[in-house]
Amino acid sequence: MSIIGGVRTSTAADLRSANLSRALRAVHEADSPLTRAELGRRLGCVRATVGALVSDLDALGLVRERAAETTGRRGRPSARLGPAEEGPVVVALEITTHAARTATIPIGGAPCDVTTEALPGREVDAVLDTARSLLARRLDTLTGRHAGVGVAMHGLVDRRTRRVLSAPGLGWADLDLDVLDRLGLPADRRARIDNVANSSALAESVRGRARGVGTVLYLHAAVGLGGALLADGRLVAGRRGLAGEYGHLPFGTGDRLCRCGNRGCWETSVDQVALAEAAGRDATPWTAETVAGEVLADGSRSARDAVARTASALGRGIGALVTAVDPDLVLLAGHAATLFAAASERVHEAAAAACLPLHRSDLPPIETSTLGDDAGLVGAAESVYAVLLDDPATLMTPWTAA
């Protein structure tokens, strides 16, 4: 960028960098390897420009062209453009209520070598020591290929400070915790942290069912219930990044105490603990996933009734939120998706009864996540790629994570 007569103008180098970014982002976000012709159509570029961009990205070690498989059709099959096998990668870490998980995410976005390690306890030191050890082992195997680290946290994360404020499922409250520092990560743009609902929603907007959809209400439940609102592929994060804590709206029944300290929160009628308790079974945040799974698999009358009541509670909240945000799509993940699969009619009926009458004949589709349990990992990596893909050369710049 240069300034002539007080006006900012783009230089040839600026334009080249911008085109490289657009080309690499197209490769990264494509569902499958692209031909040069397909890349040209996506970029609106002529053949010669596409050739130059492919050559430059190849020289940077970011993409490779591979010969296409023979199809038996007439004519020479077109080569396909995809990520370089030994190119840079982003490491994703997810800290859940019971485990830490890591994955290597190359350009192209598919998680590789997902590793899970159970947490030895819920104390802050025990959780973060386990996560740091798992992350360090992953980084050591990559011999300098890692270009950044994204962290998805099952807790409340202040986007302004990148600090964890609480993690009710782990029993953490009233925190001001620099998780990135505790993980040995530098405070720069290549290390990112967000809550798992935001991370998962971002993944769905780039790679999943939410791609190309206008307004999406995303709900993720496990121990607790959170979510996110997507508008044209962008998170509506709020002032501190704390938007989407729908589980703490007063949609719950009765005066049940929530882990947040309030009473009557929606998640106390919907999450895994709620389902276990509805079936008359004891569950703690530590055992809720297992117990909820047992209830869902149990064909007894009492278990079916518990699933129906919990699904109705999920639907009531969805109906209220449909009235509030008028989404094009409601997307469910985690325990919410499992509950919906088990009792979708109950969810639909309750949602229709709880929303404004004008919505009842035209409820938005209610669907389940296409990315499954890996959505948090994919989204954590996408938060880093969102920065790195703006300047492809930075992907090849050495980065020290610890």
From TrEMBL:
Signal peptide boundaries: none
SUPFAM superfamilies listed in its UniProt record: Actin-like ATPase domain, Winged helix' DNA-binding domain
Record-linked Pfam families: ROK
UniProt keyword annotation of Metal-binding present: no
Record keywords, A-Z: Kinase, Transferase
GO molecular function: kinase activity
Top-level division of the source organism's lineage: Bacteria
InterPro entries: ATPase_NBD, ROK, WH-like_DNA-bd_sf, WH_DNA-bd_sf
Annotated family: Belongs to the ROK (NagC/XylR) family.
Name of the protein this chain belongs to: Sugar kinase of the NBD/HSP70 family, may contain an N-terminal HTH domain
